[in-house]
Write a structure and sequence with these properties.
The complex is a heterodimer of chains A (303) and B (81). By secondary structure, chain A is α/β, with parallel strands linked by helices. Helix content of chain A is 34%, strand content 13%. Classes of the chains: A alpha/beta (303), B alpha+beta (81). Chains A and B meet through α5 of A and α2 of B.
């Protein structure tokens, strides 16, 4: 609960800063002296200090079980991204149901009251998607180990091959949070809404319809294209708060608008959702889970 | 010739498609097919689409729970990708 209060307090201060900012110049989100809006990233020092704590669970997401077995952060468990998607949904790759997420987290023995630290092997992409899934089902305390296994190795830490067994739990998710995920109908209803901005996190070629990965190519009308990789340092960590604020503020994203992120299947969109909502503290950000895989295949979608 | 194999299990969008395209572009003149294994459902749409642009057709076989094998074969008469 302390963490929740901290996040809310920080979000409030960011919003207050935004209000001040809007009165002065623009509605771009500002961060306080280079800090992120929320304490959702942890570093190697934090991992070392909290490793083995009963209240903390580390989950490697993305990659595969073979790679995990060959080396992982000590004490971590493996969760595949397939366990966090719904195989029965007609739109491929959609978020898993509450029951499916409950089963996945029960299987690795996670409790609702634990701090879950997610990490992956490349650019925090899987970790950010998994973070979004857990927040959608309202797990209170979720963090990302910024940089994952490459950062762990870069900092001179040893990988473990020991598999730590955890007793299965009876995890039950919270209710789905409709404020952070959106649907085709909601998107279409807001394409002409001046209070809504769309962030296309795909490549410029996908955005322009030169690289077509559905029945039709192009983008949601009015979208601003900021490819998700623009938020990532060369070592896979997130860029600084100041750099991110400049990137998205400079692209035209303002705190007085609702922002909808999207990509091809809601993964890259979740990464940018994490950046905008959690790192920069934009107050209203939704990830369009169906993304272009759904939108571009629907003949009724305005393009 | 046995098709070259590419295992992208555990990789999520956009990497399965990107790695597949890279592998297709590296196929030798005497190689006509690539076999890809994935567990990421969106890749079942993006990989065939991109492969088609490079002159390949894709056959998809479900090999297990949420796991698929994609056999990507160069169209007859197509030049090297």
């Amino acid at each position: 609960m302390t963490y929740v209060r901290t996040v809310r307090a920080r979000l409030f201060s960011i919003m207050l800063l935004s209000v001040v900012s809007s009165a002065c110049a623009s509605d771009a989100v500002e961060t306080t002296e280079g800090s992120y809006a929320n304490d959702v990233l942890v570093d190697t020092e934090w991992i070392e200090a909290n490793m083995g704590e009963a209240s903390v669970r580390m989950l490697e997401v993305g990659g595969n079980a073979d790679a995990f077995a060959e080396g992982h952060l000590p004490g971590a468990s493996f969760l595949s991204m397939g366990q966090l998607s719904n195989p029965d949904d007609p739109v491929r790759g959609q978020i898993a149901t509450a029951a499916q997420v409950s089963a996945a987290l029960s299987g690795v023995g996670v409790g609702r009251d634990q701090t879950v630290v997610l990490y992956d092997r490349r650019n925090n992409l899987s970790a950010a998607r998994a973070y979004w899934v857990l927040k959608y089902y309202q797990h209170a305390d979720v963090r990302i180990y910024n940089g994952g296994t490459p950062k762990w190795s870069e900092d001179g830490q040893a990988m473990s091959t020991e598999i730590t067994e955890y007793e299965p739990s009876n995890y039950q998710t919270g209710a789905a949070d409709p404020e952070i995920r959106t649907t085709w109908q909601y998107v279409v209803d807001h394409t002409d809404d001046p209070a809504t901005l769309f962030c296309d996190t795909r490549s410029p070629d996908e955005h322009l319809g030169l690289d077509v990965r559905a029945e039709r190519g192009g983008h949601i009308p009015g979208s601003i294209n900021v490819e998700w990789t623009a938020a990532v340092n060369s070592n896979g960590t997130f860029k600084s708060a100041d750099a991110l604020a400049a990137l998205y503020g400079g692209a035209g994203f303002t705190s007085d608008r609702q922002i909808i992120t999207y990509c091809q299947s809601g993964v890259r969109g979740a990464h940018t959702w994490f950046v905008l909502s959690e790192l920069l503290g934009y107050p209203s950000v939704r990830n369009y889970d169906g993304s272009w895989g759904e939108y571009g295949n629907n003949p009724e979608s305005p393009i | 010739m046995t098709p070259r194999k590419l295992d992208v299990r555990g990789e999520i969008c956009p990497y399965p498609m990107m790695r597949t395209v890279s592998a297709l572009k590296k196929l030798g003149e005497d190689e006509r097919a690539l076999e890809v294994v994935t567990d990421h459902p969106p890749a079942l749409e993006t990989i065939p689409t991109q492969a088609a642009r490079l002159g390949f057709q894709t056959d998809i076989e479900e090999t297990g729970a949420s796991e698929w094998r994609l056999v990507i074969t160069r169209n007859e008469g197509e030049a090297e990708a």
